[in-house]
Amino acid sequence: MLSRKLGQQLGRPTQSLSGWLVSKFLMRYNQILEENAVKLCEIQPDETVLELGHGPGLGLREAVQLLTGPRGKLLGVDYSNYMHHMATKNLQGHVASGKVALYCCDVAAMPLEDNSVDKVFHCNCYYFWPDLKAAALEINRVMKPDALMVTTLRLDRVVSFASKNMFHGENWRPEVYMEALQSCGFADVRMENRTDKLIPFQAIYATAANIIPETREVEAFPHMRSKNRVSAGRIKVQQNSVQNCDVDEDNMQRNSRLKRELHMLSTEPPPGVSCWQLDERVEELQAQIVGGANTPYDGGLFTLEIKIPDRYPFEPPKMRFLTPVYHPNIDNAGRICLDVLKLPPKGAWRPSLNISTVLSSIQLLMAEPNPDDPLMADISSEFKYNKVAYLEKAKRWTAKYATQKNKGHVEADQKILEDKSTKTAPKREALSAQENVEPHKRVCM
C-alpha cells in the first residue's frame, strides 16, 4: 500500500509533505537524466522544443539556455498542478517573456498545434501514462515530420521500483513503451546504453513519421484536429508491413541498424561486454562477456559467436558460446536457452531489442541460471539439489577454458565437445537418468 502511494506521488506529486519530498527526490536523482535528454536532442537555437512531464523544471532550465534564437520556443506539459506551479515559479522570467510556455494537462490531450514541435524529451515519465498508445498518438500529432524524441531512464532503478509495485501494470517496461511508439507511427525506435559521470543510464530514441506508405485507421480523440496526418477525427498510423519487404530492403535496414548498434557497442558498451565485426561481413560478429563477480565464472572471459539473420531485427540474432560454460542453460555446443533469443509465442524477442540488450541478458543468465528451463538437465538437477558440486565444477571449467592462461586450448576443446554432442544422441548419461527422475520435465531446445 505504501509503495503504491509513493508511486502515485512520483507520477503526480500533490501539494503536500509527500509531494514536497518527491520534488526534492526528482531534483536530486533526475539531474543527470534531464541533462542528457537535453544534450542528446541536439537542440538548435531557433527550434520549438517540448518537455513531457517537466516536474520542477530541471530539464526546462537546461533546454532554455540553448534556445538563443529569436524563434526559439520552449514548451512544457505536466499533469501535476503542484509541479506546474513549481516550474512556473522556477522559470518565471522566461515565462513572462514568452520564451517558455507551460501547460498543466495530460500528455494524451495537449493544447498544441499539429506538426509544431522540432524536438521532444522526457525522463522517468512514460511509466505513469495510463494509455501509452493514446499518449504516443498525441505526441506524434504535435511533432513535425522527422522530429526527434529522446527518453532517458535508469532501467536498474525502474526495475527496482516495479518490483515494489510502485507502477501499475507493465507500462514501465521499455519494450512495451517502444512498441507503442512503433505502432503509432514512430520510426527508428531504439534504446542505447550510456554512461555519464560513472552513472549508467538508458536513452530511447524515436523519430516522428514523415511518409506513411501503408496505414490503418485508429480512433482519435475529439480535441485532435489534423492538418496533414489526421483526417476527419482519425489518425493515420504506420502499419507493420514487414512481410511485404523484399530481401534488399531487409538487408539495407539490417545493415543500417547494425552499424548503429556496433558503433554504440564500441563507444558505450554495457559493463563487462564487448562486441565486434568479423572482417567485413556485417552478419558475423563476435562478443566477449567477463564473468561476473561473486559467480563461479569470476575471472573468466567468455567468447560468443553471433550470426545476424537477413530479417533482423524482425528475427532475433543467433548466438552461441565458443568458450565452454558449465551452466544449466548452455549446452556442450554453446547453445543458449534464453527467451529473448526466440520468437514469440515461445520466446520474447521483439524488434525493439538489440544485440546489447541480449548480451546483457546472457550476462545476467550466467549470474542467475534458470534451472526450471534447462538445456542440460543433469546440470540443472545438480544446481537445484547439490549446488556446492555445481559451483565447484563451474569454477573448474572457468579456470580451464575461460582464463587467459588457458585460452589457447579453448577452440580445440570446444571442437571435441561439439563432435561429442553431434555424435551422441543423449549428450550425457546423466540426462537420461534425469529424464527418468522427472519424466514430464520439458528441456528447452
From TrEMBL:
Listed A to Z, the keywords are: ATP-binding, Nucleotide-binding, Transferase, Ubl conjugation pathway
Protein name according to UniProt: Ubiquitin-conjugating enzyme E2 T
Q: Which domain of life is it from?
A: Eukaryota
Q: Which EC number(s) does UniProt give?
A: 2.3.2.23
Q: What is this enzyme's class at the first EC digit?
A: transferase
Note the Gene3D superfamilies from the entry: Ubiquitin Conjugating Enzyme, Vaccinia Virus protein VP39
Stored InterPro entries: Methyltransf_11 (IPR013216), SAM-dependent_MTases_sf (IPR029063), Ub_conjugating_enzyme (IPR050113), UBC (IPR000608), UBQ-conjugating_AS (IPR023313), UBQ-conjugating_enzyme/RWD (IPR016135)
Q: Where is this region: Disordered?
A: 408-445
One GO term in the molecular function aspect is: ATP binding
Where does this protein come from, organism-wise? Hemibagrus wyckioides
> Which residues are annotated as active site?
C337
- UBC core domain segment(s): 253-403
Basic and acidic residues composition-biased segments? 408-430
Under the heading SMART domains, the entry gives:
UBCc (SM00212)
